[in-house]
Structures are given as structure tokens and as C-alpha cells.
């Protein structure tokens, strides 16, 4: 090869190398996969994805037909559930030891009254609010009599009507038991709850005897003396 031929080929080779270097090279499928992996790994992307537009919920106030079509279901009304103590059946339970009515009533009500049950009404005058009509959670005070010489106390659990309530009480049968959800019926002439008949769990009906009631001591904050 002559010197002139070498001189011509060298510039031509340089020009060809320059064109190849600056020309775009199509990436192979394998290279494209690596590039995609690197983009995802670094968290960068050349494409900016548009955020999806928020879905507009139908307004029931402006389109009342939505509810009827089932597209805008309205919340179902809450069922009316009666107080469990209203419908609970009378039951008898037994404690680990013999329970007296005053012990049980004091535990259940929180009333800090001591002594025989027949004295609770008088002692409560300067300590707690008293009522002539039954109130839920109040303590009903039985006056002393030949039948119940020391009186009796029971906790009102439900007021079923103007003449019927339910109570929980202990030792009504003189066996230290706990009688739960026991109905009590007002049999006074003036519906003033001065006389009642009490449910007999042994016969599953109201007892024949009538008992005198002093009143109801409410389970509230103690009242101030003289108020």
C-alpha cells in the first residue's frame, strides 16, 4: 500500500468512527429490561402517571332516587331492643354464704345504710333522696310487720308500668338465696305503692300476702342535711 492510500484511509476511518459514536443505538430487549429495572430500583421514571380522578359519590339529598336504586344505601335503622331486665325470667341463685337482704342491697346499691331493713327509710332521710314511686336502681324498703319483723329491702331493676316493677333481693325465702328479676305488684287503692304483693318463685305466681312499703331510696349522691 502506498503512502497516499494510507493518508486517504486514515481521515475516512476517523470520520466513520465519529458517525458511529454519535448515532443512536437501538437497545436490545435484554438492555431494555435492565433499564426498566434500574428505573424502578431508583424510584425514577421518565413517564409521569396521572393520578386517577376521585370518584364522585352521589348525593342522596340532591338525587333521592339513588337510594331506591341501591346505589346510595341508607343506613338501616337501629332495632329497638328492650331492657334485658324487662323480659328476663325470675331466677334463683345461691351465694357462697348465707346472704341477708341488707347485705345484698348495700352491695348492689352502694347505699351506706346499716341496721335492720325496717330502719333504712328513716335513716335515709338525712343521707339520700327518697321517693314515693319506684325508680330504677332505687332500694325499696318494706316496713316491719309480724311476717317480716326486721323489714326487708330490695333493689329495683325495672319499672314495667304504673303498678308493676322487677326487683333483685336476697333472703326473701329465708334461705340466704338471691332472687333475681322478681316481679312486684302494687295493690294499694291509690296506686301509691304503699302495699305490694311479691312474686313467689316456688309457685311461679304472685304471693297471697300483702306487704307494707315505706318508700324508695334513690341511688344518687347523698343529699345535704336540712336540704
Account of the 3D structure:
The chain is α+β, with helices and mostly antiparallel strands. It has a domain at 88-217: endopeptidase domain like (from Nostoc punctiforme) (endopeptidase fold (from Nostoc punctiforme)). The chain has 6 helices and 9 strands; from the N terminus they run ααααβααββββββββ. It has a 6-stranded antiparallel barrel with strand order 3-4-5-6-7-9. A hairpin with a 2-residue loop joins strand 4 (152-161) and strand 5. The longest helix has 20 residues, at 3-22. The termini are far apart.
Number of strands: 9
Q: What is the CATH topology classification name of one domain?
A: endopeptidase fold (from Nostoc punctiforme)
What proportion strand? 15-25%
Shape: globular
Mean pLDDT: 74
Sketch the major β-sheet: 6 strands, antiparallel, barrel
Give a brief outline of the structure.
The chain is α+β, with helices and mostly antiparallel strands and 227 residues long.
Question: What are its keywords?
Answer:
single chain; 227 residues; alpha+beta; endopeptidase fold (from Nostoc punctiforme); 6-stranded antiparallel barrel; 6 helices; 25% helix; globular
Give me the secondary-structure topology.
Layout: H1 3-22, H2 29-42, H3 65-69, H4 84-87, E1 91-94, H5 101-109, H6 120-124, E2 130-131, E3 139-142, E4 152-161, E5 164-170, E6 177-186, E7 195-200, E8 205-206, E9 211-217
Antiparallel strand pairs: 1-6, 2-9, 3-4, 3-9, 4-5, 5-6, 6-7, 7-8, 7-9
